[in-house]
Design brief:
The complex is a heterodimer of chains A (347) and B (549).
Chain A (H helix, E strand, L loop, with lengths): L6 H24 L4 H4 L13 E5 L6 E6 L5 E6 L3 E6 L4 E7 L5 E6 L5 E6 L4 E9 L5 E7 L6 E6 L4 E6 L3 E6 L4 E7 L5 E6 L5 E6 L4 E5 L5 E5 L6 E6 L5 E6 L4 E5 L4 E6 L8 E6 L5 E6 L4 E5 L4 E6 L6 E6 L6 E5 L4 E4 L1
Chain B lengths: L2 E4 L49 H12 L8 H10 L3 H14 L9 E5 L2 E8 H11 L2 H12 L5 H5 L6 H14 L3 E3 L13 E4 L14 H13 L9 H13 L4 H16 L3 H18 L13 H13 L6 H16 L5 H15 L14 H4 L3 H7 L6 H6 L4 H6 L1 H14 L2 H13 L7 H13 L11 H13 L7 H21 L1 H13 L21
Antiparallel strand pairs in B: 1-2, 2-3, 3-5, 4-5
Helix pairs in contact in B: 1-10, 4-7, 5-7, 8-9, 8-10, 19-20, 20-21, 20-23, 21-22, 22-23
Classes of the chains: A mainly beta (347), B mainly alpha (549).
Chain lengths: 347, 549
């Protein structure tokens, strides 16, 4: 039973509701066509033929996260076996194995420069390793341990070698200056855990997805929320920017994937799995933005044509839930991490 | 045939979690038979292979440590932080409260040492006794309430389907099963953790192994444990089939470290052998039950296996909801929504159009549609792709074409940047690009060099006697001046750089794209690289900035 509101609050609530309705109306006005209709003239996309090019074996427990470096070749994966592995995804070789202090890693990030990797999870902190520096035991050197979270670390991304943005289970978004080892700012971003984050191609903005079922667009330099996107009916597990920087795709627990547009300030397309039974844990977009790929808990990766809103196919091979996808920036290879202890490179 | 003599129940005292090392593991403890439940078995410890493959000396050291158990190895921070965070913590607390009552000396479940044939079975109780005790001591509402709580945990659907109303005996059995599935009590000779209302024997788990201690045993520990089991030449300790399989798998996995694991196992087994026989029995079974919880028999529910992200978020969501939204939060939301209403939004049809043009623009560069010029390294087993990306000479027409999409694309390509700067030099407007590059460079400098570099840049580009003066509008000039004087940080030039970028984009860049220098270069590169699949020249009119800004 929620506490009874005083008249002032009630009035505010009423106003809020009215505004919400007004916005919905406005959105309807703007939504003058469906995506599929508007793109009807576009030729059908060919069927995507991706096969596993490399099976990256080495983790001995669930792999929770994978992320490509900016060089399109190296990727880092983090697993519950307490290791980060840096892979050469082309040869399939392990470049480096980084033992972690805590095995509960939930998110990893590779700096675009390839110099640093960051990881964190249920240890409630974010650890940054310098890939090019080894300590006396031969493991990568810890350059920063970022503390102060009241919840698990769920997502992290490098803006560049100096600035790291993290989202965490305490609903906060934090910007770190790695050079100075100080928090630039932190602020409550969502009404629920921040689960996923994606940087825009120009690095000026980023979107976050949260268990509060919304996605938000942020300025990379200030704590102001620029836009809010509703629509999902369950946790938004993954967000991924469209390469044009004008839209982003999502993957959600509510068994749908959606495309939101920043310019029209709303959802423009919804992609549903053919079975209707697959919740999505991760998503990625192809370099022309034509395909959206979503890792699912039904062990496969579903692919849709974003424009014609058609299911293009699915990639199977993993033997357990897929936890994370990462597309190389040139669009040539897709990395997927799974609970089956493997990372696969699709090409 | 079976005689029972009542005695103190084992495993009653709750051990201080922080200091179990007070219990020395070398040598029998207490001397008495049966009062062994509260011993800390030395064999389970957490010592990760933090340093890769250890040297022999290190291994010996580690083995020595293993022999003299010290719990300090547990990652202290983790244990501390996650104990409260663990979503199961509340349920564990409840279960532990029941266990505490069950283990009460006078009113608890009768724990006995059973004599059967030649051997003695220490510190056990029967399933029937347990269920009877639960029915007597826990009222039915309480039972079902506990059951509801336990359902919050990830349990099998089969167990879920039993959710219909149950008679008290079933209810009690069910709760017992759930508690057993978390390893608080366990059947003495079965790997499957269930409780039956009959004369099978059960034992309490020692508090040290309770799941509330946030055990995250590693595979190495499991390997040591299994390895140790093979050393004890007893039928009761023989490995089950699945354990043997696991051992083989682990042995393969840790092949290089196996020597180390073997040494640890040997050391632990030595310590175990010095123990009193009955005590050892109890410890062996408790340890086995611990692993039955954490590495369950195939087909059993692993209660420690939960989607940690989801469980954690559920707990925080519960915390977040009860708080009512205060008025100022609402008004802030209203303000945001009002702003949102003011936004001019683009029609969906227009948006779709822009997607299409973006897609058309980039179709040549999406390997899903057009095979890349340099063979896809994953398809061709050829790594020349990465060299090609970096090279500045002999760029293909396809790559050059991309420069015309947007200034961003042009500057992203090292060859493009170089060509553009040549063009600007010819136009005598190279300073803009130089300034922009300097600003980008500033962002990658070490912190201590930033203020100096910012000052230097001021003198070079904006100051009164600037060597390469740039043109910025008055407003950004003032802001930048203030920034550099007061707070020369990484971003102090951002506004000026944005202005300069805009200038380049609207002025020099559009002229560059139309210039003969660019078209010549494009045509030249076309001749040089007669790559198959390149289409006719795309007309750049109108589409330049269509989707890519």
């Amino acid at each position: 039973m929620p506490p009874k509101d005083d008249p002032e609050t009630a009035k505010l609530r009423k106003e809020l509701e009215d505004l919400m309705n007004k916005i919905k109306e406005e959105q309807k006005k703007v939504a003058d066509a469906t995506m599929a209709d508007a793109c009807a003239s576009v030729a059908d996309a060919p069927r995507v033929r991706l096969v596993t090019r490399k099976m990256l074996k080495g983790h001995i427990n669930k792999v929770n996260s994978v992320h490509y470096s900016g060089d399109n070749r190296h990727a880092v994966s983090g697993s519950l076996d307490g290791k980060l592995i840096i892979w050469d995804t082309w040869t399939g070789n392990k470049i480096q194995v980084i033992p972690l202090r805590s095995s509960w890693v939930m998110s990893v990030a590779f700096a675009p420069s390839g110099n640093f990797v960051a990881c964190g999870g249920m240890d409630n902190m974010c650890t940054v390793y310098d890939v090019n520096n080894r300590d006396s035991t031969g493991a990568a050197k810890i350059t920063r341990e970022l503390l102060g979270y009241e919840g698990f670390l769920s997502s992290c991304r490098f803006l560049d070698d100096n600035i790291l943005i993290t989202g965490s289970g305490d609903q906060k978004i934090t910007h770190w200056d790695l050079e100075k080892n100080v928090k630039i700012q932190d602020f409550v971003g969502h009404n629920g855990d921040v689960v996923s984050m994606s940087l825009s191609p120009d690095n000026n903005t980023y979107v976050t997805g949260s268990v509060d079922q919304s996605c938000k667009l942020w300025d990379a330099r200030s704590p102001d929320c620029k836009q809010v996107f509703f629509g999902h009916t369950a946790d938004v597990n993954s967000v991924c920017f469209h390469p044009s920087g004008q839209a982003f795709g999502t993957g959600s627990e509510d068994k749908s994937s959606r495309l939101y547009d920043l310019r029209s300030d709303q959802q423009v397309a919804q992609y549903a799995p053919p079975s209707g039974q697959s919740g999505f844990t991760s998503c990625a977009l192809s370099s022309s933005g034509r395909f959206i790929m979503c890792g699912s808990d039904d062990n496969s990766i579903h692919i849709w044509d974003t424009l014609k809103v058609q299911h293009n196919g699915s990639l199977s091979g993993h033997e357990n839930r897929i936890t994370s996808l990462s597309m190389s920036s040139n669009g040539m290879a897709l990395c997927s991490a799974s609970w089956d202890n493997n990372v696969r490179v699709w090409g | 045939m079976v005689t029972m003599n009542a005695e103190k129940s084992g495993g009653r005292r709750r051990m201080d979690d922080g200091n179990p090392s007070g219990q020395s593991g070398s040598g029998p403890q207490g001397g008495g038979s049966g009062s062994s439940g509260n011993l800390r078995p030395p064999s389970v410890r957490v010592l990760g292979f933090a340093t890769g493959v250890p040297s022999v000396a290190e291994a010996a050291l580690a083995a020595a440590e293993a022999a003299s158990p010290a719990a300090g190895h547990r990652p202290a921070t983790l244990a501390q932080t996650s104990k409260e965070d663990n979503p199961n913590a509340a349920v564990y607390k409840k279960m532990e409260a029941i266990i505490e009552r069950m283990q009460d000396e006078n009113t608890g479940v009768p724990v006995k040492t059973v004599k059967s044939f030649m051997a003695k079975i220490p510190s056990v109780f029967t399933g029937a006794d347990l269920i009877q005790w639960m029915m007597k001591n826990l009222d039915i509402d309480e039972l079902s309430a506990y059951r509801e709580d336990l359902y919050c945990l990830a349990l099998s659907s089969q167990q879920r389907s039993n959710r219909l109303s149950l008679c008290p005996a079933d209810e009690a059995t069910h709760l017992a099963c759930l508690m057993s599935s978390h390893g608080y009590l366990f059947p003495i000779d079965d790997h499957v953790l269930v409780v039956r209302n009959d004369n099978t024997f059960y034992r309490f788990q020692t508090p040290y192994f309770w799941p509330s201690n946030m055990w995250e045993p590693e595979n190495t520990d499991y390997a040591v444990y299994l390895c140790k089991r093979t050393m004890q030449n007893k039928t009761r300790l023989e490995l089950a089939d699945y354990e043997a399989e696991n051992l083989a798998r682990l042995q393969k996995m840790f092949s290089r470290k196996w020597e180390f694991i073997f040494m640890q196992a040997e050391a632990q087994s030595k310590v175990d052998k010095r123990r009193d026989k009955l005590e050892r029995k109890v410890l062996d079974s408790q340890e086995r039950a611990f692993w039955d919880v954490h590495r369950p028999v195939p087909g059993c529910v692993n209660t420690t296996e939960i989607n940690i992200k989801k469980i954690c978020s559920n707990s925080t969501r519960l915390m977040a909801t009860p708080a009512a939204t205060p008025a100022h939060l609402i008004s802030r939301q209203i303000q945001m929504l009002k702003q949102r209403l003011d936004r001019r939004n683009i029609k969906l049809s227009k948006v779709a159009e822009s997607y299409i043009s973006f897609f058309e623009l980039y179709i040549e560069y999406d390997p899903f549609f057009t095979p890349p010029e340099v063979p896809n390294p994953w398809l061709s087993d050829n790594a020349e792709f990465w060299e090609y990306e970096k090279q500045v000479k002999d760029v293909s027409a396809r790559r050059v074409k991309r420069w015309a999409f947007s200034l961003k694309e042009l500057l992203a390509d090292p060859a493009g940047r170089e060509h553009f700067s040549k063009f600007l030099e010819k136009e005598f407007s190279g300073e803009n690009l130089k300034f922009w590059e300097a600003v980008q460079n500033l962002k990658t400098l070490p912190q201590q060099e930033v203020p100096d570099e910012a000052k230097r840049m001021w003198d070079e580009f904006l100051g009164p006697d600037a060597s390469i003066p740039i043109n910025v509008d008055g407003k950004s000039f003032e802001t930048t001046k203030k920034n550099v004087e007061e707070n020369p940080d990484r971003w102090c030039y951002d506004e000026a750089a944005a202005h300069v970028y805009h200038l380049m984009k609207t002025d020099s860049y559009s002229r560059y794209v139309r210039s003969p220098m660019y078209t010549d270069f494009l045509n030249g590169s076309k001749k040089k690289t007669s790559v198959k699949g390149i289409r006719s020249i795309v007309s750049f009119s109108g589409r330049k900035e269509a989707g890519a800004t």
